[in-house]
Structure formats: structure tokens, C-alpha cells
Amino acid sequence: MVAKVYIVYYSMYGHVEKLAQEIKKGAESVEGVEAKVFQVAETLPEEVLGKMHAPPKTDAPIITPNELTEADGLLFGFPTRFGMMPAQFKAFLDSTGGLWRTQALAGKPAGFFYSTSAQGSGQETTALTAITQLVHHGMIFVPIGYSFGAGMFEMEQVKGGSPYGAGTYAGDGSRQPSELELAQAFHQGKYFAGFAKKLKGSA
């Protein structure tokens, strides 16, 4: 029986998208797990995105609320906006009212990954403030804790992420996820997929 993990993200400049792809690789490294990557719809007009120098979106499919019910586990990724998820992702979650009404997502495991501009810009609060969305849907929050091992205690280089999930620093936009950050993203995908598979098998 295959466990389905859906990785759903919003990425304006591509940093979160890179984490999503690495998380997918990690999830797919677990036997019996199928991982798919989706993005949420953009809410800003093209004119505004152009002024913000945002690159074109990838060809990842745009997810609909009802598609969330197909997954056995959900990983949500987004950049921070003042320590919280951006309006684009919140708009998508706001559209899941019908699923909330029937508690269609209750009992499903879920987690977060994220990007911030700098240290102290929300590597933990971005995930922490997003947990309320899972709570109202009755979902199970699955953090990575310190399961990434020595990588969690790295002090010689700048590294995003936290016990809440994988993360990266974008800086002024030019910095890309480091090898260590990508390794943490892979780990999160693998760790989470194992949990989702185990939970599905026990159902």
C-alpha cells in the first residue's frame, strides 16, 4: 500500500521551491512512498510581481483544496512575511473551510519548511504561527526535532532550519540554499515520509 506525501509550497524567488524539490527526493527515498510537489496560486498581479523582480513560476501544478484529502501526509512550505506565512499561502488555507467543516484532514500528519531573509527573521516563528492552521483541521504536527543530528548544531556556517522544519536564508535574494540546508530538507522529506508510511500502515 503506497503512502502519498504531498509537498505544497509558495515561492516568490525560488528558495522554497528548491527546498521542496529536495524534500521530494528525501520522501521518495523511502520505499512505499509516492511524493508529489504542488504550488499554491499566486494572488499578486503580474505587474506587481514584475516590479518585485520575481522570476516566472515553475510548472508545478496548482493545488486545489480538495486534492489535500488524497494525501496521507502534507508538508507545507513558504517564505516568511513578518514572522508568519505569506498572504498567498494563507489565502489558500482560507479556502479550505469546506474541509474544516467536515474535518476531512483530521488525523493527517503535516509539517513545515520555510525561508527567511536573515537570522532572526522568523526561522521558528514562521512555523510556530502556522501550527494554528493544523490545529483547527485536527492535523498532527510532525517536527523534525533534532533528528538531523550534528547538522542541527552547526556553528561554522550560516544555516537555516530549526526543530520545526527545514529552512534557508535568502538574504537579498541572491543567496541560495546551501548544501547543508538542502541536506536538512532531504532529511525532513525522508523522516516525514517514514512517519506518514508508518501511520498509514497502522490505520
Automatic annotation (TrEMBL):
It comes from Hibiscus sabdariffa (roselle). Belongs to the WrbA family. Residues 5-192 form the Flavodoxin-like domain. This is NAD(P)H dehydrogenase (quinone). It catalyses: a quinone + NADH + H(+) = a quinol + NAD(+); a quinone + NADPH + H(+) = a quinol + NADP(+). PROSITE patterns: FLAVODOXIN_LIKE. It comes from the Eukaryota. Coiled coil: none annotated.
